[in-house]
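To start, one record:
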Amino acid sequence: MGVILRAVSGPGAGAQVFIRRGQSARVGRTEWADFSFPADDAMSDVHFAVTCSPRGCRLCTLGAGATLVNGAPVQETGLRSGDRVTAGATTFVVRIEGEPGEPEPDAAQPAVPAEPVSSAAPTGSPERTAADYCGNLELTDEARPLLDPEVSPEQFLDRLVAGELFPDALRFVAAWLPKPEAVRWACDCVQGSLGTQLTGGEQRAFDAALRWAAEPSEENRRRAERAAEGNQFNGPASWLALGAFWSGGSLAPPHLPEAAPPESLTAQALAAALVLAAARIDPRRINDRCRQFLQPGRERALKLRGAGS
């Protein structure tokens, strides 16, 4: 079973969101979402999520804007074939595989084939390669030769681990995951390693990073910046907060012209946080600790892509 959300009106008309059984995907205006509709200015950065499970499909509103299902605002609800979901200025028609009665789209807005707008690959689309996730990611001279044009993310990660290139591997996993999920993964690793060892300033930075991962709003992004600064940019928790702050938006103060961060900054910050956390526990076992960090990151990435189900 899977669910298809077909945009039938609004700036995203013609695009389709496909979510496999066992998969969850976020829909919104920015790259923080798994499926993004950047032309819809009325849509929240991450507007809603849909989860498809053996028990059915459910929608949960995540952003500040309202999500309407059949014209009524909802926070969380089940979905059925024929339901109409409105987020911002875009309306989707729901089709759940195996349920009868797929509705026709609005006559004024015929659905046309469209390329997927997300890293969550629909059925029939080619799997993304490791190079697709690397972009301008800074890799060491030892790691670069391992990045063949057609190597899969899993294969590339295995090569990095086999070569004990753990900082490269951590950066890659952080780039492989959507940014909120990457920050959440890194937070889980740091918390699992350091637990109650975080000081007051470190705990505030950690909490700010985790809050942004749960709700990647501009307000929470700026809060993460202030928390990292308040901790004097020291330690793994500050780098977690910087990873959230560097996720998008502008690096400049709000009253100055925008200065967009490089795409790879979040991955670099999260890798730094994890290396620092590994070193704090036992510098002699950094590689073992990094290896432990990588496994849940890999599992998260595979689950999001539907490859682990």
